[in-house]
Amino acid sequence: MDFIPWAQPYIQAKEREYLARALDSTWVSGGEFVNGFEKAFAEYHRKKFALSTSNGTTSLLAAFLALKLGAGDEIILPGYCFLAAAHMAMHLGAKPVFAEVEPDTWCLSARAIEEKITTRTKLVVPVHTYGNICDMEPILSLAREHDLIVLEDAAEAFASRYKDCPAGSMGWAGSFSFQATKTITTGEGGMVVTDNEELFKGMGLYRNHGMVSGTYFHEVAGHNFRLTNLQAAVGCAQLENLEEIIHQRRHIGELYDSLLAEAPGIALQRFDKAVERVLWTCALRLDPEAFPQGRDQVIGQLRERNIETRRGFVAPSLMPLYGCPPLPICEQISRQVLCLPTYPGLTDEHIEYVSKALLEIRR
């Protein structure tokens, strides 16, 4: 079997066509594709506003800055996730407070959030991991009760839905990433969606050096978080190809389920009935009794079979940087999770080969 990467982008003729049009226009920084990408993205999420950024991390930072997150504030987020939101909060002097996740969905719950709320809590950041979505109704209800802002980190869950609501569309704002491995990509890139005009305008200021549009008058000490017209051209094409991307990612998830869901020693990430998933990656937990060699050794064994996989995220309680108290559930998940190849273009033969190889490695 030829080498099977963990991820690769879905690039078709339209991406090349739109990129050529952007180049030919000579508008390689801002331009019509940026405006078009933002408009289409807002419409897809049923939101009034969408602001493109240079990556998913700066989309979070733009939102935090506009929300005036700072010293003395706390944000609550899951202890199993990619930690971009935590880092942006720390840069602003705020404190990330990590909560346990559910042991089967690996997502944040309202119950876990409530245990972490203090008088300093300003923001809750549900991170929708691997294409799953947190149970948002009780989270939003709890946030209203305590007058907290909810900002969804939907970087890994674009196109997934919760009770027919797109991921990232349910809180005050939703943040997205278009990094190379994501469901749609612009190479690097990000987006924030919201219905709040004040938040939208504030994020726009921080994205563009704190300047009022079309002037050199600076209202705040801003940054440069702008997405280029070249990147947005690719993003527009990706959105037009979205139906096929969703179809393939759903098929991949269904086939992995059929091959691995009942296998002893393997526990696939669970998705609630309320979630209509679009997988970012097919992720599972390896039972140490079935895989006594450990997850990292399994990665090496699969690599010998020309299969690239990824380990899960590391719980913040296992890293000195965060000063985080123990999170037993997150720590166990982080030691056991394995992420399998998941991308449009992955064939049934590839999926069957990957699954068979994993089962052969099992004790």
From TrEMBL:
GO molecular function: pyridoxal phosphate binding; transaminase activity
Keywords, alphabetical: Pyridoxal phosphate
Keyword Lyase: no
UniProt xrefs under InterPro entries: DegT/StrS_aminotransferase, PyrdxlP-dep_Trfase, PyrdxlP-dep_Trfase_major, PyrdxlP-dep_Trfase_small
Keyword Repressor in record: no
Pfam family, one: DegT_DnrJ_EryC1
CDD domains: AHBA_syn
Record family assignment: Belongs to the DegT/DnrJ/EryC1 family.
PANTHER family on file: DTDP-4-AMINO-4,6-DIDEOXYGALACTOSE TRANSAMINASE, TRANSAMINASE
Protein name (Swiss-Prot/TrEMBL): Aminotransferase DegT
Source organism: Candidatus Glassbacteria bacterium RIFCSPLOWO2_12_FULL_58_11
